[in-house]
Amino acid sequence: MKLSAPLYVLKRKARLLSRKNNIPLHEAFDHIASEQGYSSWSLLISKQAGTLSADELFRQLMPGDMVLLGARPGQGKTLLSLELLMRGVDQGNHGAFFTLEYTEQDVRERLKRIRPEWEYSPKLLVFDTSDAVSADYIMTRMDAAPYGTLIVVDYLQVLDQRRDKPALMEQVEALKKFAEKKGLVLIFISQIDRFFNPSLKPYPDMYDIRLPNPLDLSLFNKMCFVQGGTIQMNQCKNNRI
Which end of the chain is more exposed for a tag (fewer CB within 10 A), N or C? Predict the structure, then answer.
């Protein structure tokens, strides 16, 4: 059964419901589960076996990681990436969001949608909406970033748009070396081919990533795909597309 929102959003709704109505947390979780068509929260979770919550995904991120986060439009990949950034800031880490899709005001509004009470800290989280985004640009901006900084690039295919920049493969290779050297976490939001059919398989995979030009996907050591309100992680094998 398709969930109305990702698991991490439903969990947050349950916590807010527990506080608002002064009821035990387990009752709030079961109430949210009933809204999704399940008799209990434990049953809902069992039906989502093999998927991750945002908490679980965040805990798996390590300095030096190259993560690809893919989904079709409207599946919540941008909100998930912002949620990961917020969790990093909650722990005192730095974060950066590079995007050509949104203005800074757009991003702040989305942060409020995720957690209305969350206070944005410009010292820990920066937004960059420059048209000049490229591997060289990101590395220059993030050269002094502290160890463990989480960087989101919205989106992978943006690096492949300008013919005056190096090839996509070359840029991703440079960013991988940069992340490993500096101990940073790099997350690339990725477009998924419009021909992906969820009726044929539950999640996109590496073969559904939209790539006009060749890219060695083994440069990414983690791949996450969002579909139908849930998150699944795949390990990248030595393949080229």
Answer: N
How far apart are the C-alpha atoms of 182 and 142, rounded to whole Å? 9
pLDDT the model gives residue 126: 96
Amino acid 25 reads L
Instruction: Write the single-letter amino acid at 128.
Output: D
Residue type, 47: K
Helix (H) or strand (E) holding 223: strand 222-227
Write down the pTM of the prediction.
0.80
| Cα–Cα distances in angstroms (integers) from residue 81 to residues 136, 154, 178, in the given order | 22, 9, 20
Q: Which CATH number fits domain 54-234: 3.20.20.140, 3.40.50.1820, 2.40.50.140, 3.40.50.300?
A: 3.40.50.300
Instruction: Please state, in angstroms and rounded to a whole number, the distance separating the CA atoms of residues 194 and 7.
Output: 24
Residue with tokens 């420059």: 130
